[in-house]
Known about the structure:
It is a single chain. The protein is an alpha/beta fold. It has 2 domains: 4-132, 3-Layer(aba) Sandwich (Rossmann fold), CATH 3.40.50.2300; 135-234, Orthogonal Bundle (Arc Repressor Mutant, subunit A), CATH 1.10.10. The chain has helices at residues 18-30, 41-50, 68-76, 95-101, 114-133, 164-174, 183-191, 200-212, and strands spanning 10-14, 34-38, 56-60, 83-89, 106-110, 139-141, 144-147, 152-155, 158-160, 181-182, 220-225, 229-234. Strand 11 and strand 12 form a beta hairpin. Helix 6 (164-174) packs across helix 7. The longest helix has 20 residues, at 114-133.
Amino acid sequence: MENEILLGKKILIVEDDISSRLYLNKILERTGVVALSACDGREAVAIASRDPEIDLILMDIQLPIIDGYEAAAQIRKFRSDVIIIAQTAYSLSGEREKVISSGFDDYIVKPFSVREVVARIKAVLRRTEQKQVQPQPILRFEGLEINASSYDVRVDGKSVPLTPKEVEILYLLASQPGRVFDREQILAKVWGYDYFGDTRAVDTQIKRIRQKLPQDSVDWGIKTVYGIGYKFETGK
Length: 236
């Protein structure tokens, strides 16, 4: 069944243009989605905080009250597992890199067709579910545990709030300690396609991961291999 991946999924549409919001809501509901909607960033945060069953958020960047960047950042404080797709304008300088550094998992460029939106949502959900259906070994190092199947990272037994993409990057590097991955390889293996055509997005994600993990008093960490990429190093 073409829309089987969407059946029963709960999606929050965050869009201040009422006609666009209602149209997206109508189209997605036809695919079997349970569609919720919000007209501004503050309302989106409130709805996401009340409903832990939301699977995906389709969020416009240019929103009133608080914009999409701030809304995503606030949602990430209590929902590191939810998928957030940004609706963004490709022409805005620096917009694409800023999207990935703000906790979004994917993006779609305006103007877009509804068919394109549905296809992108399906692709992201399919990739996520495939990784959950095929359990991966839990990686353990001194004081560090990385569970890619449940998207859970723990340091000394305490959960670290990494986003799904941050967990996937960390798992990729830690799965082969000492191996150097260049930025193009990380983009291809984690996103499954050339995400932005801009490898600086990888640098931004690595920076976010480092900010959330301890850097001192541990014998492991992500090391930059200048001019090439990154590797996970133990016994440093």
